[in-house]
Write a structure and sequence with these properties.
Length: 358
């Protein structure tokens, strides 16, 4: 089937007042929760604009489907599927299988299909072309070909040239942290957080958050290295396999463990520094000017992490105690990191991306 091309300048022309928007995105122990959470943030913005939103998610191990407060259609997990492709294994289906299952359940009149999956590329997009007016792809890797009308890559320093020859010529590229899909609580808390950072000089409150799953239990190693003089808040997702272990270690110590926090902006506001992983949470921390000691837990986080370090917003961890000591012994370092971080992301990405579709 020949792909249908639409000029993005007329993106809204002829659309109904109440747009029907479908998200195809998954979460699991392997995939993590970041893809789903940024799609939820964007979906919430679209709903505020009057759109009808539907999620299509596969029931993978460790998913967080129940956190979606929009209509959700669940694709069954295929335990027998095996592939040499890492991301297809995470998906639990071939591109063809997933396309057929998605087409079968998606609303008949779909105005926009938002796709956030490293496993789904041009072949899948072309299968779906006849079933949606437009396709928006959320990507981080620039490692495959796409057939979409809009492509969003919210990562720091990404350039148009990495998508040359990978997207249609008339595809609209939304690139960089100005388009980071954050919940509105971050932009709403930003002014208060930046004002507070101006006067921070001591490190007393430490936020430890290694993502929703932290299957390698890096959190436990970190806690063993932190001085008891700190007030420590640990945030874990409920799909983490190490919750009991972390809670047992924290008992009778100056460590608070929060599972499935619903106030991350407040927790980041109260922290003097964060110890965290790469990924979407990086842009939340930058929005609030939170200095970060960063662990790179996946290869696809490396480029963005190194760019953040080059800009002086984070320190990539080789030795946690050495990194902490560097900040503690240099009183201005904390404020410098905060100023560098806050210049990277303002938290208004959902509104900017939303302006292209509504």
């Amino acid at each position: 089937m020949e792909a249908r091309r639409i000029n993005v300048s007329s993106f809204k022309a002829g659309w109904t007042d109440r747009l029907n928007i479908v998200f195809r995105v998954d979460s699991s122990i392997q995939i993590g929760l970041g893809h789903l959470m940024r799609c939820i943030a964007f979906a919430d913005e679209l709903k505020r604009k009057g759109c009808t939103v539907t999620f299509i998610c596969r029931a993978l191990e460790g998913n967080l489907i129940e956190s979606v407060e929009h209509k959700v259609i669940v694709l069954e997990k295929n335990d027998d599927f095996q592939s040499d492709d890492l991301y297809l294994n995470w998906l639990g289906a071939s591109q063809g299988q997933d396309a057929e299952q998605t087409i079968k359940v998606m609303p008949k009149m779909t105005d926009l299909l938002v796709v956030d999956s490293y496993a789904l590329g041009q072949y899948w997009h072309q299968k779906l072309r006849a079933h949606t007016k437009k396709i928006l792809v959320i990507d981080d890797l620039a490692d495959r070909h796409f057939d979409c009308d809009i492509l969003l890559n919210q990562n720091l320093g990404v350039e148009e040239k990495v998508y040359k020859g990978r997207v249609p010529r008339d595809c609209k590229l939304l690139l960089g942290c100005n388009y980071a899909l954050l919940r509105p609580e971050f932009s709403e808390t930003r002014a208060k957080a930046l004002e507070k950072r101006r006067y921070n000089s001591e490190i007393e409150n430490v936020l430890v958050s290694l993502g929703g799953c932290d299957i390698d239990n890096v959190t436990y190693d970190i806690l063993q290295q932190l001085d008891s003089k700190f007030n420590i808040v640990v945030v874990l997702g409920k799909t983490s396999p190490n919750i009991k272990m972390i809670k047992a270690y924290a008992k009778n110590k100056n460590i608070e463990v929060i599972v499935d926090a619903n106030n991350m902006s407040e927790l980041m506001l109260n922290a003097d520094i964060a110890i965290g992983a790469g990924g979407s949470t990086s842009w939340e921390r930058c929005c609030l000017g939170l200095p970060t000691l960063l662990y790179v837990l996946a290869d696809n986080q490396r480029d963005a992490a190194e760019r953040l370090e080059d800009l002086g917003a984070v320190i990539i961890i080789d030795n946690l105690k050495t990194a902490l000591q560097l900040i503690i012994e240099n009183s201005d370092y904390q404020n410098i990191m905060s100023k560098n971080a806050q210049s990277i992301c303002d938290g208004l990405g959902c509104k900017r991306v939303g302006s292209y579709v509504v």
